Amino acid sequence: MSKALPLEGVKILDFSWVAAGPSATRYLADHGAMVIRAESATHLETLRITGPFRNNEAGQDRSAYYANYNAGKYSFRLNLNHPKAAEIAKRLVQWADIVVESYAPGVMKRFGLDYRSLREIKPDIIMASTSQMGQTGPITTYRGFGAQASALAGFCHITGWPDGEPLGPYGAHSDMIAHRYLMIGILSALEYRRRTGKGQYIDVSQFECALQFLSTVLLDYSVNGRVASRKANQDPCYAPHASYRCMGDDRWCVVAVTNDEEWRGLCRAIEKPELVDDPRFSTLSGRKRNEEELDRIIEEWTRSRSPEEVMHLMQAAGVPAGIVEKGEDLHRDPQLEHRHHFWQLQHDEIGLHRYDFPAFRLSKTPGRIAWAAPLLGEHNDYICREVLGMSNGEFVELVSEGVFE
Fold first, then answer.
1. Nearest to 99 by CA among 69, 121, 129, 74
2. pTM for the predicted model, two decimal places
3. Domains of the chain
4. What whole-number distance in Å separates Cα of residue 389 and Cα of residue 382?
5. Which among 34, 74, 131, 297 is least surrounded, fewest beta carbons within 10 Å?
6. Which of 114, 175, 203, 295 is catalytic?
7. What is the pLDDT of residues 260-307, one digit of tens each?
């Protein structure tokens, strides 16, 4: 007999798009929540038209990016610019426990779907908004994606080579951070409502979420007045600390030595025990002063070995090390395979496709991915008839008027 999922019975109306909102609501769907994703063909969700696409053939239902963040959800096509659409949305609010959105501040209010309006429809509704800057403040109207929020938060200033231009972290970095805070905020609000019977509004700023991962940089400036700068792979407290070229095409292994015991282990691993007491490297301060020469010696050894061999030899010697894995490596990684991280599901448009699972596992109430990502508007008929109880006549009339575009 299958175990009950922890969020069974929780109903979510999801107006969010791109990454932060959809990632959070997918976590909730994976653990039993019913998520209705409201979207429109008149203004396609950004990820639906963002690659990679299966077989490099673009299409609104062919994006692997969109598919991964929206598995297990219902897709409801609704054109909010149509004068009758807001009324349909409000009927769904009556059904929902939670409304999630990630538009620019003010957009939901223009549709008549801001928190104050939703409370009039359903007093205990929980509403969550995630935006670049939050809903209030002098630059709250600034628009952008995770790349821009990452720059504003300071990641780009400290990422890159000392003599080069700023380099941002890969992808929409703040989106990959903010959705976890959004999910926890929603769960906290659900628990609060369970205890008090009251809903609440959750305002998530991706900018502020990103700052949580720069705490040491912020503290160093606050306490010592030091402004962090680009240092490539170097660390102010550790040496060696870098990514070393290995045998093969663009193959690398990261090695980090954090204390003298690990330094001795590294010297054993690269078969250069004489370096242990070499005055240039015997202390951390010495290793930092001679870091360029030290990196040259280590890479001279790693270049003739595969990254796997380097990692295993270093780990065996008690030295933290890890392969710089490519996408193909991740999909055959034995650790990820053991933990069943990737799920294969059949998608109606792109066929058998892999989806990643949340990094956490609940022992008593494990999650699951219920089904592959939906086609645009795939569940309109079901939602209108079964969830909203529409008559056939009303449904046909609204279709003909373009409400469900």
1. 129
2. 0.92
3. 11-212+339-400 (3.40.50.10540), 241-329 (3.30.1540.10)
4. 9
5. 297
6. 175
7. 999 999 999 999 999 999 999 999 999 999 999 999 999 999 999 999
